[in-house]
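Retry 2 of 3 after timeout on previous attempt. Resubmitting C-alpha cells to design endpoint.
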C-alpha cells in the first residue's frame, strides 16, 4: 500500500463493516470510484460487473439520471421534514399510497393497510417486532411475545434483528439471541433433506418442526414468525414448492403473525413484484428496503395489515401512543427517490423483465456450473441464484470454513472483472441489478466461470 494513497488513508482511518480488520490492514481496500449500468469502476479505471447489485440492492444499476433529478428537486424544495406528531409531507404521502397499492394481499385476503418508514432493513424488522409486541400488549395479551425465525435467515444487525438472524456463529460473538427468539429448520432440501425423503415430505417436516416449537414454547406466548420468502444472505435458499402453504397453515392455527422480510425479495427479484406473490404468502406485516430506492438513498418500509393497524390505533387509547420512530422516518429526499424508483419499475415492467431475463440467467448458470467439479448445487429463482462450491459434489459436502474458499474465489473474481459475494457454506450469491440484459448475463457468467476455473487450478496444486 503506497504511503498517503487513498488506500493507506482508508487503512489509517476507516473501520469497515463485516471485515477481517487485520487482513484489511495488510491488503487495503478495493476502492470503487464510479458506476454505470451493471458495472462499477475502481480508482484505477478497471471495470467490474456487479453480480450482486452492491448488496442485493442497486436494482436499477449504478447510474440513473431520473433518480438524481428527483433527489435534487426534493432537496431544493424541502430537504427535510419529519413525520412525528401528525406532521407529513408530499413524498411520504405519495410513497405510502404507492406501496399500499402495490403490496401483496394480507393475511385474511384483504389489502394491506398502512406504511411506516425507517432507514434500513434492520430498523424495519426491529420496528415490526415492536409493533407486534405493542399490538399484543394493546389487545390484552402481553405474554404473547416470543418470536420464531429460521436458521440461516437474515434479518439485519441491530440487537433484535441480529437475534432474528439465524447465524449461530454470529450470535456467539455478541451473546445473542435476546430472550424469546427461537430458530426453526432451514428449508434447504439439498442439505437438510433426509435419505429417501421426498421434497414434499421434507416440506411437511419443516412445518411439523415449526408446530413442535410453537407447542413446546406454548402457543399463548408465541407472537410471530419472521421469514424471507427466499432466504438471501443465508445462501439463496429456495424453499420446496409446498413449504409456504404448510408453514402458513401452522401459523394460522396458533394465531402466530407472519412478517415477510422482503428486503431482498421485494420489487421483482423472484420474478413477481413480491416474493410473497411467488409463494402465495399472505403476511400480517411486510418489511422492505434496498431496491425500494434502488439503493440510491437509505429508506425502508413496514407495511401492515388492517388488523395490525387497528391494534396500533386502539393502543393509543388503551396503553399509550406507539412510542417509536426515527428522525429520518420517511425522509423526504429518500422518499422522493423511492417514488421515482417505483415509477421507473412500472414503466420498464420490472416484473416482466425479471420473468424474461431470470430464466435465461438461471439456465446460463446451470449450463456453466451444473457439472463443474467444484460445484455442488446451482439453485435460484427469478433473478437471484447461488452457486455452491463443494470439495465433493456427489457427497454434498462443504469445504472447511477455515479454508475460506468463498473469499478466495471473490479475489479471483476481482482479477477477472466481476464483483462476487460469498455467503456461508461457500455459496456464491448472484443477484445482479434487475436491469441486466441477456448479453450482460453472458458476460457475467463468463467472468464468474474464469474465476471458478482459477480457483480449481489453485486447489489442484
Ligand atoms: N433483511 C434481509 C432479508 C436482508 O438481506 C438484509 C440485509 O442484507 C436486512 C434485512 C438488513 O438490512 P440493512 O442492512 O439495511 O439493515
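Retry 2 succeeded. Sequence:
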Amino acid at each position: 500500500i503506497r504511503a498517503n494513497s487513498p488506500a493507506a488513508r482508508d487503512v489509517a482511518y476507516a473501520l469497515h463493516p463485516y471485515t477481517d480488520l487485520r487482513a484489511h490492514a495488510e491488503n487495503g481496500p478495493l476502492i470503487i470510484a464510479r458506476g454505470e449500468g451493471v458495472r462499477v469502476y475502481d480508482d484505477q479505471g478497471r471495470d467490474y460487473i456487479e453480480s450482486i447489485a452492491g448488496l442485493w440492492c442497486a436494482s436499477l444499476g449504478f447510474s440513473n439520471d431520473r433518480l438524481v433529478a428527483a433527489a435534487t428537486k426534493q432537496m431544493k424544495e424541502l430537504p427535510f421534514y419529519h413525520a412525528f406528531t401528525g406532521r407529513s409531507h408530499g413524498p411520504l404521502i405519495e410513497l405510502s399510497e404507492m406501496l399500499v397499492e402495490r403490496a401483496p394481499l394480507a393475511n385474511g385476503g384483504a389489502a394491506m393497510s398502512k406504511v411506516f418508514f425507517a432507514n434500513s432493513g434492520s430498523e424495519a424488522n426491529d420496528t415490526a417486532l415492536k409493533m407486534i409486541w405493542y399490538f399484543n400488549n394493546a389487545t390484552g395479551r402481553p405474554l404473547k411475545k416470543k418470536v420464531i425465525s429460521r436458521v440461516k435467515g437474515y434479518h439485519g444487525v441491530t440487537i433484535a434483528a441480529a437475534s432474528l438472524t439465524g447465524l449461530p456463529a454470529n450470535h456467539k460473538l455478541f451473546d445473542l439471541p435476546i430472550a424469546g427468539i427461537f430458530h426453526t429448520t432451514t428449508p434447504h432440501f439439498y442439505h437438510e433433506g433426509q435419505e429417501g425423503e421426498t421434497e414434499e415430505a421434507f416440506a411437511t417436516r419443516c412445518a411439523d418442526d415449526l408446530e413442535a416449537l410453537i407447542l413446546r414454547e406454548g402457543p399463548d406466548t408465541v407472537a410471530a414468525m419472521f421469514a424471507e420468502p427466499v432466504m438471501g444472505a443465508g445462501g439463496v435458499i429456495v424453499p420446496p414448492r409446498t413449504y409456504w402453504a404448510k408453514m402458513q397453515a401452522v401459523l394460522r392455527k396458533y394465531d402466530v403473525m407472519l412478517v415477510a422480510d422482503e428486503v431482498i425479495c421485494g420489487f421483482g427479484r423472484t420474478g413477481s413484484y413480491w416474493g410473497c406473490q411467488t409463494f402465495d404468502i399472505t403476511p400480517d406485516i411486510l418489511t422492505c428496503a434496498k431496491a425500494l430506492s434502488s439503493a440510491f438513498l437509505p429508506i425502508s418500509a413496514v407495511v401492515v395489515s388492517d388488523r395490525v393497524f387497528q391494534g396500533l390505533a386502539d393502543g393509543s387509547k388503551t396503553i399509550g401512543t406507539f412510542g417509536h420512530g426515527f428522525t429520518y422516518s420517511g425522509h423526504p429526499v429518500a422518499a422522493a427517490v423511492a417514488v421515482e424508483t417505483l415509477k421507473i419499475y412500472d414503466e420498464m415492467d420490472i416484473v416482466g423483465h425479471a420473468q424474461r431475463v431470470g430464466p435465461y440467467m438461471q439456465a446460463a448458470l446451470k449450463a456453466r456450473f451444473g457439472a463443474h467439479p467444484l460445484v455442488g448445487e446451482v439453485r435460484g429463482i427469478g433473478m437471484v441464484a447461488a452457486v455452491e462450491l463443494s470439495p465433493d459434489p456427489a457427497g454434498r459436502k462443504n469445504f472447511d470454513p477455515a479454508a475460506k474458499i468463498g473469499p478466495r474465489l471473490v479475489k479471483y473474481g476481482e482479477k477477472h472483472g466481476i464483483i462476487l459475494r460469498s455467503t456461508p457454506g461457500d455459496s456464491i450469491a448472484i443477484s445482479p441489478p434487475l436491469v441486466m440484459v441477456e448479453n450482460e448475463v453472458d458476460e457475467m457468467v463468463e467472468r464468474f466461470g474464469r474465476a471458478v476455473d482459477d480457483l480449481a487450478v489453485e486447489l489442484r496444486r
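Attempt log closed. The chain has two domains: 31-63+349-460, 69-348.
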